[in-house]
Amino acid sequence: MNMIEPYTIEHRPTPERYARGWYVIGSNSSITTTPTTLSAFGTKLVAYRGQEDNQVHILDGYCPHMGGDLSRGEVCGNSVICPFHLWRWGADGVCDHIPYAKRIPPKAVIKSWPVLEKNGLVMVWQDPENNPPIPEQEPVDNADWYSGEWTDWEMHSIPIQSQGRELVDNMADMAHFGPVHYSSVKSFKNVMDGHRFIQYMVGGHQLLTDSCDDLLTSVATYEGPAYMTTAMTGSMEGQPMAVHLLVSHIPVDTNNFIINFGVMMKKSATHNAEENRALLAAYTEKTLESFHQDVAIWNNKCLIDNPLLCDGDGPIHLVRKWYSQFMTDVADIRDDQVRAREHVTVEGPSVEDTLAVLANRA
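Above: the chain sequence. Below: its structure as tokens.
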């Protein structure tokens, strides 16, 4: 009798390295002239809005003089003052004033992190090589946010006890939608191209209505390792719905991350402002309930570098190969990490055809 050896789960030690790209730290309105603490990338940062330039600035969070926490200080002009000895640090990270010193030490410089304000969000650029942002990897404009026809983002932060790669796996993990989200998937396709990875899905979902037969379309796009937006259409309580979801994780350290989760909804012309806010709140609550179904899995699963896959799974290895480009030095990125390709897991109605059906129903 032949004995089959049990499958061995493998996981290599996690290096102290964080993926290169843009990370959302919050909405525009969340950063003010009062300093904010950011626990990210294995350290502490301070974020604040300048009093003079009205721009968001992010600096290393500890004063190198005697270790004071800059996020406990205050903003003066475009600088932040350490509460310990009142050393003042400019937006460029250079110390510009010490009240009791005749000469500022020439080494009095801390890191100033690249910042982007776009689509109603504040983002910080992380690069393990300390290179400046890559221009072509800046997230594209979200025209809906600028149109005035949509609500602003409703934001929530969700702590996760895992690694960002586990979150990104969802882009290819078609098989989890049924067991975890009680969804029926009618079509599922992934497209990889450079720094983008896209998931096209058509299905039914109890999140939106009491019937899983109602159609839902979802186009989820990662632009870099940590900025994912989803354009979703469907219905709630019999009313057509159009929403954008934001999922941007920011690693606290190698074993924990925070998901900055946002929902933005197209305003209904038949509702007043208060009714639209109530509709957004109701949809956000339902969406968070669905998202926490994933959280319960992530917080309790193990990390697997060699997942045992079957022919009905999505292209897990493909999305992981794509993600690995952001953990690789730019000079060492391989063609197979960025080359355009497409993978269809479930052949079925396209997003475009389903949108036409939904439009006819409306």
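Residues 273-298 form the longest helix (26 residues).
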